[in-house]
Design a protein that fits this description.
Layout lengths: L1 E5 L5 E5 L4 E2 L2 E2 L3 H8 L6 E3 L2 E7 L3 H18 L4 E5 L2 E6 L9 H13 L1
Antiparallel strand pairs: 1-2, 3-4, 5-6, 6-8, 7-8
C-alpha cells in the first residue's frame, strides 16, 4: 500500500507504508498494546484508546495537573482527551493518525504518571 503525494511540479510520487501504519505513526498490534499496558497498571484499554482517572485532593490540584499535562502534550504534539470532574481528571489517549493506539500514547501516559 502506498501513499501518493503531489510535488510542486504536479508530478505524483508514492511513499511506502506498511501494514498498521498511516503516515509516519505506527498503530500498535493488540499484542503490543497488551504488553505495554502490563507496564502501566493504572491505565486500561477502552476501545481504541488507553485511559486513566487521576484523583486529587481538590479542584485546584486537579487543574494544576491538567495544565502541566497541557504543556507536556503541546511539547510532544500529542493531545489527550480530558474530562475534569472536580478532583478527578480522566485522560484518554489515542493516536488519530494511526487510527488507534501508538507508542506516542504510552510515552505521554508515562509522562503523566511521573507528574503524580
Amino acid at each position: 500500500m502506498a501513499k501518493s503525494t503531489k510535488s510542486k511540479s504536479g508530478s505524483t510520487k508514492s511513499a511506502p507504508t506498511t501494514a498498521g501504519t498511516t503516515g509516519s505513526v505506527a498503530r500498535l498490534s493488540d499484542e503490543q498494546v497488551a504488553a505495554e499496558l502490563a507496564k502501566f497498571p493504572e491505565w486500561s484499554l477502552v476501545g481504541d484508546a488507553i485511559q486513566r482517572t487521576f484523583g486529587f485532593a481538590n479542584f485546584v490540584e486537579a487543574m494544576a495537573f491538567v495544565n502541566k499535562v497541557a504543556a507536556a502534550a503541546e511539547a510532544a504534539q500529542h493531545h489527550p482527551d480530558v474530562l475534569i470532574r472536580y478532583n478527578k481528571v480522566t485522560m484518554t489517549l489515542s493516536t488519530h493518525d494511526a487510527h488507534g493506539i501508538s507508542a506516542k500514547d504510552f510515552a505521554l501516559a508515562s509522562t503523566m504518571d511521573a507528574m503524580v
